[in-house]
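This protein record is not my work; I was only asked to verify it. Where you disagree with what is written, explain briefly why. This is what I was given:
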Amino acid sequence: MADFKGVSYRRDITTLGRGGSDTSAVAMAAALNAERCEIYSDVDGVYSADPNVVKDAKHLPELSYQQIQEMSEAGAKVLNAQAIQFAKESKIAIYARSTFDDRKETVIRKLESDNKNDVIAVVHEQDIIRVTIKFDETINSTNEISVLISQLDFPIKEFNYLKDEHLNISKYSFLISKSNIHNWKNVEAHLNKTFGDRISIDEHLAAVSLIGEGFSRESRIIVETLNLLSENNISIFGVSTTSFRISLLINKDLLNKTIQLLHEHWVK
């Protein structure tokens, strides 16, 4: 069957967007009540980092749905996050293999937690844009932001809100992955025209993420990571965490150095 295509609720044929081939494969496996879905590409599974950046990146033979989903959402391009969610809901194991060499594979399935706080991978995303919009409290900022988000035809991430009662100012900020936008200059012009001097746009960022499990149980890994980057003169412009991921915003000119440093330190 042809992949990457779907039908809307109005019965209009449409494309599925980035990662649509993975989504098609998993959807077909679910429709057939399959136990597993094999996805073949030019790589033999998932690695602990991009092998083009880290030459000694380790092959990962098995991952949980949550781990690979966090990797995908943090920038890893092996499998689509939406397809992983579909597989998780349908209880379908995914086998990621190479078309040219079947000696290795990565299996994604439900795994029991081992309660370890280990880093298994370092993933990255280039060209992150941070948009910050300031509002005087006399303005209905919630309504303006709601309208803005509804108008954007691409996903945003890491949405934050901060209110300074002393200065009577609210700040909204969110991140955009430039790879998800085909007409960024038009979007940027629209944002600047709409918000004027209330908006600031930072385009010099990249994101590096540590993937593992149990990061919310203790602060050791994040504290050690912050100290490590500080010792190597790598500034951090933002931090976000989940139980499976620690993401850091850095200067994109230092991206490869940061990936290699974190991988050497954490991935044993």
Notes: The longest strand covers residues 119-136. The helical segments are 20-31, 65-73, 81-90, 141-151, 184-195, 220-231, 255-266. The radius of gyration is 20 Å. The chain has a mean pLDDT of 89.
